[in-house]
Amino acid sequence: MNDGYLKSKLMACAEQTQVYEKKDYSIGHRGAALMFPEHTIESYMAAIVQGAGIVECDVTFTKDRQLVCRHSQCDLHTTTNVVTIPELNAKCSTPFVPGGEPLCCTSDFTLAEIKMMCAKMDASVGGAMTPEEYIGGTSNYRTDLYSVNCPKVPSHAESIELMMKYGVKYTPELKTPSVEMPYEGDYTQEDYAQQMIDEYLMYGVHPDIVWPQSFLWTDVAYWMKNTDYYQAVALEETYDAYDFSKDEFGDHVSILLNAGVSILAPPLNMLLDTVNNQMVASDYAKYALEYGFDIIGWTLERSSSLALPGGGGFYYESVADVVENDGDMFNYLYALDTEVGVLGIFSDWPATVTFYANCMHHD
Q1: Residue 304 in contact with residue 273, Cβ under 8 Å?
Q2: Which helix (H) or strand (E) holds 174?
Q3: Cys-Cys crosslink for 213: which of 65, 112, 233, 337, Cβ 3.0 to 4.6 Å?
Q4: Per-residue pLDDT tens digits for 214-238
Q5: Do the strands 67-69 and 169-170 form a parallel or antiparallel pair, or are they unpaired?
Q6: At residue 363, does pLDDT exceed 80?
Q7: Cβ–Cβ contacts within 10 Å for residue 216, how many?
Q8: Contact (CB, 8 A) for 360 and 26
Q9: What span, in angstroms and rounded, lies between the C-alpha atoms of 111 and 20?
Q10: For 93-102, what is each residue's pLDDT tens digit?
Q11: DSSP per residue over 227-259, as a string?
């Protein structure tokens, strides 16, 4: 990290701090998915140990309509060993065959069948000739170390129980279904959205500590109208909105404004721009704030080393011209904090944000 105010402040903090407190500013993205298989108890525990005050379970449904934690309804072929288990591979929407590309969805299996699988790092080898070869391919900046003991795919209910045990707050994301809805003719999108909330009601979890999220803004509007879970988060995936005018932005978020939604969550790169070699708030971020939104950003530590050409990738593309080394991650955090004023930041390795939040006195 280059010398300057921020480096001096963080170094002084590191020298003086013995215990780092848990911080809601630090949000575990799929747990601590940089090094642990995402959406496993092990990944969630790593995020908790790293001081994440809020941990995410991405929610989707099984064949028997149970809710499980997976980033996508159809990612089991890359996030578990399902293709190596012949009787389960045969049930995939597209089973593995040598040289082929499988597709295995949670809706292909019952919860009990999913519990037979071992979770792993999200990766695959295209064109593989054996299932064992196919489930390799982990990026060289990640590791398979924590996959060897067969971590299991947790149910949504199990994730609630774990967070409750350790006093951690919740941000479940209702994943957009990959199957046609209504599922099997009678399970509607509204049923699915309500079922997720019902599991928090079942455990007596207060709305103050839950931030339900969705990329489908109709889900977010549904929660605002039909439940007490008022901290609904609208996830942004219209990346072109980065270049919208203020009026275009207003039209874009009108469904949210009409529903009373107050939290918007775009990818981090949409929140910043550069002026005179300094990171500053983007027009998108300024418009969001002017329209009254609080902002949560995603996702830190989801890239290779920032010192490599293009190392920051998607999440740093709006500030790539001022990013030189891994220490610039803290400059990035500082700009998101001081220029934008984000409520919190998702990270694949929450310890970094927890450290920053402790040193910069965030809750």
Answers
A1: no
A2: strand 173-174
A3: 233
A4: 999 999 999 999 999 999 999 999 9
A5: unpaired
A6: no
A7: 17
A8: no
A9: 37
A10: 999 999 999 9
A11: SS----EEE---GGGGG--HHHHHHHTHHHHHH
